[in-house]
Amino acid sequence: MVYYDESLSSDELSVLKTIFTEEVDLDKDVTISAYETLEKPEPVEGEYIYNIYVPVTDFYSTDSNIDADSPELLFADAYEGGVAHDMIPVDELDFTKKLLGINSSYYLDEFDKGAVFRVVKFDSEKFDEEIKPLVDTSFNKEYPEKDTVLTMAQTGVTALSRGMNRKLAQVGDARYFSEKIAGFLSGFDLTHTSNESSFTNYATSENICSDPRFIDALTDIGLDIVELTGNHNEDCGDDAARESIDIYNEKGIRTVGGGKTAEEAAAALDIDEKGNNITFLAYNLSTGGATLDATPGANQYVEENAVSEINAAKERGDFVIVDIQYYECSAYASEYEDPTCDAANSAAGDQVGFFRHLIDLGANMVVGTSAHQPQTFELYGDGVIYYGLGNLFFDQIWWPGTTRSLVLANYFYKDKLLQTKIVPTVYDANMQTKLLDEETSKWFLQRLINVRP
After folding, report:
1. Domain count of the fold of the chain
2. Residue 332 pLDDT > 90
3. Among 203, 233, 268, 288, fewest CB within 10 Å belongs to which?
4. 115 and 74, same structural domain?
5. How confident is the model at residue 336 (pLDDT cuts 50, 70, 90)?
6. pTM for the model
7. What is the residue range of 39's domain?
């Protein structure tokens, strides 16, 4: 006999009754029930995690967390916690919805908290012999785990140069600049930045060249991918650009969007980790720095090349990220808050139209890595656009806009972007980058959201 407890949902009952039909002859009775918990349980004999539900809200919401003492509160029609949300199965999660934490636990970081775990329990004296063979296929499910979710931090402009060279001479250790952000960034499987300053012993407080010791700041944040689309990597000369690439190679840091030759600069970065396949393309459409020959430099944007490369990646079934070094929006005339560049258009061209065009070509995510101030972002078509990430490491401490950046904390699972958590940073008068506090982050993100196209 099969006994169905009233705790079972209609969906669960429907599945169970397709398994336990009249033709199934059991030697021992089985009682089937269900329960929910805010922490991932260690299933005992007869228990299966049948579903995992996560709270989501609007993509453009600045909310990040919801508090609840019990699962029931999260599913209530009139939740009193003040955060509008829906509870969805985790297999329905994608980047178009914003994942919320529960009681300050974020599911894609912790996996054993930050969700509601729905458990179905089969109570039978002959579970292994009679019940397990019947239900294992339907109830033994696979969910995102640390070993299968690829985390990737994309950051904005890095130029450890000019005033930072002078500061390094004072402090002596390049990790001084990264010490407040290294713990966060090094925690990702992959960490990216767009570095537009090459290493050379001729670095001074006046040029956009980096003291070679600054490699320690980059390894301190766990840098895995360095983008070389910037228009200043040639400021220090060809030899410095080549030697910098050698340094990256020696440190196991992969390059994209630039190289020792035009052919090398044009090579896509193929990422194949944790069951995820990502094609990372990066182009320079800016005020210089590109190479078209056997000299080092950035990867010049050419329309037919981009079309071909995006199509090839899509045919392979890869997730496609396109980074663009675009014309800069300049609003550096004020020492006060200047929102001019929040909106994603500069006097140099149609930034919105061009970035959207890349989505139309098939890119899944388009990111601007030239903006020295963070810019707005939007869902568009079948993809998502982040128009400008601002400065991760930079020396301009007198303009509020240039001290901030956006870190894109991306979570990939089975070639799918589950989520991007936007994490603002700021560097202080000492040029030390750190996470922006929660209250200021919400204010700043809302400012950017308000001017989206």
Report:
1. 2
2. no
3. 288
4. yes
5. confident
6. 0.96
7. 2-139
